[in-house]
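Data deposition worksheet. Section B asks for the primary sequence of the deposited chain exactly as it was used as input, without tags or linkers unless they were present during the calculation. Section C holds the resulting structure in token form. Section D is free text for depositor observations; keep each observation to a single sentence. Incomplete worksheets are returned to the depositor.
Section A, Depositor: J.P.
Section B:
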Amino acid sequence: MKQDPQGRSPTRARALRDWLAAPGDAGAVTEHARRLLALQTVLDACLPAALRGQVRVSNFRQGVLVAGVGGGAVAHRLRTLAPQLVEALRARQVAVVELRAEVRPVMPAPPPSPKRAVLGPGARESIENLAASLPDSPMRTALERMARRARRS
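Section C:
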């Protein structure tokens, strides 16, 4: 079966796309997500430059726009600006009556995995020769172990 560059089956991708577009719960979720993305664009245009990228639309229901922010200082600033932002959003045809700011800390990205040095055949051979020239010692043992690991990778 053919796969796309990410290794997914086109049939599966098409099935998921069809399911998300279908009327019912999945279609409603997809449509709500599209509305939230469009609302994010409008909100970004209304926000001061210092807050753009720090405020994320979390939900919009019954005229209440819920915005997630990364910390208390940004939440305070957003609450202070809420009346002006509501007016600016209304001027852009968004039927918003209230803006709520909720602190939702961003999870830090996991640390990158440590890089492993890869020894080429010439380096491995040099290490093996050096280890062979040494008397039995912890240094020789360590060099032999390094050469063995280099052979495996």
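Section D:
The beta strands are 55-61, 64-69, 98-103.
The mean pLDDT is 87.
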